[in-house]
Amino acid sequence: MDTITLRRPDDWHLHLRDGAMLAAVAPDSARDFGRAIIMPNLVPPVVTGAQAAAYRDRIRAAVPAADFAPLMTLYLTEATDPADVVAAHAAGIITAVKLYPAGATTNSASGVRDFDRVRGVLEAMAEAAIPLLVHGEVTDPDIDIFDREAVFIDRVLDPIRRATPGLRVVMEHITTSEAVGYVRADTSGALGATVTVHHLVINRNHILAGGIRPHYYCLPVAKRETHRVALVDAATSGDARFFLGTDSAPHVDAAKETGCGCAGCYTAPVALPILAQVFEDAGALDRLEGFTSLHGPAFYGLAPNEARITLTRAAEPWSPHRKRSTAGGPVTVFDPGFPLHWRTNAPA
Ligand code: DOR
Ligand code: ZN
What we know:
With 348 residues, this protein is of the alpha/beta class. It is built from twelve helices and 13 strands. Helix content is 34%, strand content 18%. The strands form three sheets. The protein has an eight-stranded parallel β-sheet with strand order 2-3-4-5-6-7-8-9. Strand 7 (169-171), helix 6 and strand 8 form a beta-alpha-beta unit. Bound molecules: (4S)-2,6-dioxohexahydropyrimidine-4-carboxylic acid and zinc ion (ZN). Residues 13, 15, 39, 247, 249 line the site of zinc ion (ZN). Zinc ion binds next to loops.
């Protein structure tokens, strides 16, 4: 098969940042994606409906509205007002709420330390059917970084879900076979998971073997190969509980290539060409559209996009730009480590 036409994909987990970085990176997502769930971890974070509306307007100013719809989220803190969340959702300003355990990742200092303190918000969200998007890692320094997702499921996520029946939850950027198993075992119909492009492609050797490669460092950190294989199996299985969230997270090279580098892979410009290769290698190209364009809208109760996108496979690989230049310096585009034969019809 040399051509596939899909309903226009959506990105159910995206970091667009703000200011000059937003202006530089937003067109890369808008080229291939119809909608995206926009992460609220700005500095300071997006915590109120009014801030989400203002941020949405800044994104709309950076990309033509006809091409790309930002779906906004609020950053959950221990001070979040349930009434503000419900009102922002009812007004169509926000689509979901993001839970960062305090200290888990980039700009997560305002996240949640004591989960009992957000119980009222979670109950209001369950009532109003507002999804909770979860960064699933414990922050306990005694827990090994490669175990933090699996421990989070047992210690935090499962207790929250049991205490809040009906709460719709998306486990964001899952990285382990434990997370895949937890989603598969669910019978509530209220649980989904996003899978990134990079976690389908790299394992921890890519980061650490033969030299430290900061552009493969993200959070949750990539795990061993068996977990990557489990993620590919989940994404390509056709199970509608798994859908694409790139977690494309640009940082300028100076912030990545340093003694204490930031977490994040900038995958937006090459996400679909890489995914097409992953699905082709798995013999599952016929399931690509479900993962990129159908399962996510179904979880969120939205219609799939009407527009289509065509991917074409050429015998000769093409070379994507290796850097995206921004006013703050260059951002390195994710390198999957294999040649790209698939290409979207949109101008690169
Ligand atoms: O790798 C990551 N980068 N993981 C996150 O959870 C946050 C993101 C970012 O904002 O840079
Ligand atoms: Zn993220």
